[in-house]
Each structure stands twice: as structure tokens, then as C-alpha cells.
Amino acid sequence: PMNLRFNYSHTVARPSIRELSDVAQLDYEYRAFVFGNSDLKTVHVDNFDFRYEFYPQQGCDFSVSLFYKKFRDHIEIVKSVGLTWQNVDNSYVAGVEMEGHFKLLPTLDLRANISLIKSETEFVRKRLDLSDGVKTYFPLDTIRRPMFGQAPYVFNAIMTYTPKKYGMSFTVSYNVQGRRLVIAADVKEVPDIYEVPRHLIDIKASKNIGKHFIASFTVKDLLNAPVRRTYNYQDGFTLDFDNFRFGTLLQAGLTYKL
């Protein structure tokens, strides 16, 4: 049993009120002030997807997808005098994704997917001139680089052990994504800023209590992986923009089901 699917869609993404407001607000992720931009345009995206699905046996499936996305006026965080949002004329993302669900044992399931991605942005660096409240942009040069926020690879895996006799469930999940651009430089002398890969492991255990209650305990970011973002110099030299940890989160819960 197998399926072949082809999909096309055209979508739009409109800038938020915060992105459109010509005011500076403190961004807690970047720990810096980010200026809004009232000149932002709506983003248009053409999505193409070709997918092959295969079902080797009951409870198992495997799929391969080829995808291509064409962006017009997508929005990026750009660093010039400060941090702000800007539209970028043309970008694309293309890649392949493989995904599978495998039943290793009657009580042991593995789900995993990996995406390999190529992205490119044609970015025109500009100088902003503000005179009598009127903003004028002067083009400086045009460069090609990876798309803002897009990692070259993403890998996820989830393993679940469910001994039904005891009404329990144990889950371990893992995630990592490749080095990705998080702040683009609008000035030639200032390098772009990239976030290096983080290895994230989460663990969750749950237990049925009677007919209606489920108790659970979750450990998020078991390794307490650091968030590290670096300046990307042309000669290969790197310098930390910031380096911090969110900490490991322990969470207990009690759920009531009707």
C-alpha cells in the first residue's frame, strides 16, 4: 500500500502590529531594543510539495517529501544602527524530508523525521535616511546568503514505551537543527549572527490513576543545552554575540479525563 501526493498552495503572512509600529521595544530573546517598521509589506509564499507514502505493515509508515517554497517580501530581523524588521524581495527554500513510524516491539514505538534544506536569499543592503519624518532607503550592494531563520537540517526523534498492563507511558524525545541565521547585517562591516546547533532531550513519564486521572512528570531540556549565537566573519573567525542557558525544567501534572 502506498500513496503519491502533489500539493500546491499560495499563502500570505501579514506583519504584526509590533513589527509595524515605529517604536522601540525591548526584545527579551535578543536582549536589545527592536525598532518597528511601518513600511513592511505582506509576505507572499508559493508552496510546492510532492510526497510518497509507504505502509509496510500495520502500525508502521514511511514517507519521503520533496518541497520548494518561493518567498516574496519575507520579513527578517536586520541589524544596522539597531535591530529592526525589513522585507527581503526574493528568497526560496528547497529540500527533502524523510519521516517514519516504526513499531519495534508491541510496546515500543519510534517516530523520526529528518529534513535536509537548501535556502537562499537575495538581500539588498540599504542605508536608511530619515529627513522630516520621511524614510528613504539607498541601496548599497546585493548579496546572496542563507534565508533568515532557516537551518540546513532538522532532526527529530521520539521513542515511546507503553507497558499497557501497568497503565504507564515513557517518552524520550530528541531535537537538533543546524546552524541558522538569526540576525542579518545591513552594514557591510558588521558580520551576520548565527545560532549554533543545540541538542535538546525531553523525558516524560505518565501513569493512569483509576478511570479519570493521569499523573505525569516531565523533564525538559535534560542537558541544559546553551543558546549560543556568534558573529560570522568572512575569514572563518567567530565571536560570541551571546551565550546563555534557559535551565532544565521539571514539571509535574495531574489531568482529569471525563
At a glance:
This protein has 258 residues and is mostly beta strands.
Describe this structure in words.
The protein is mainly β and 258 residues long. It has one helix and 17 strands. The chain has one helix spanning 17-20, and strands spanning 2-13, 24-27, 32-35, 43-54, 61-79, 83-105, 108-131, 134-145, 153-161, 168-177, 180-185, 192-195, 200-209, 213-220, 227-232, 238-244, 249-256. It has a 17-stranded mixed β-sheet that branches.
Order of SSEs: EHEEEEEEEEEEEEEEEE
- What is the mean pLDDT? 89
Based on DSSP secondary structure assignment, what is the total number of beta strands?
17
Strand content: over 45%
Q: Tell me about the biggest sheet?
A: 17 strands, mixed
Structural class: mainly beta
Using only C-alpha atoms, the radius of gyration works out to 23 Å
Distance between the termini: 37 Å
Percentage of residues assigned to helices: under 10%
Question: Layout of SSEs?
Answer:
Blueprint: E1 2-13, H1 17-20, E2 24-27, E3 32-35, E4 43-54, E5 61-79, E6 83-105, E7 108-131, E8 134-145, E9 153-161, E10 168-177, E11 180-185, E12 192-195, E13 200-209, E14 213-220, E15 227-232, E16 238-244, E17 249-256
Parallel strand pairs: 3-6, 5-11
Antiparallel strand pairs: 1-4, 2-3, 4-5, 5-6, 6-7, 7-8, 7-9, 9-10, 10-13, 11-12, 12-15, 13-14, 14-17, 15-16
Name a few traits of the molecule.
258 residues, mainly beta, 17-stranded mixed beta sheet, 1 helix
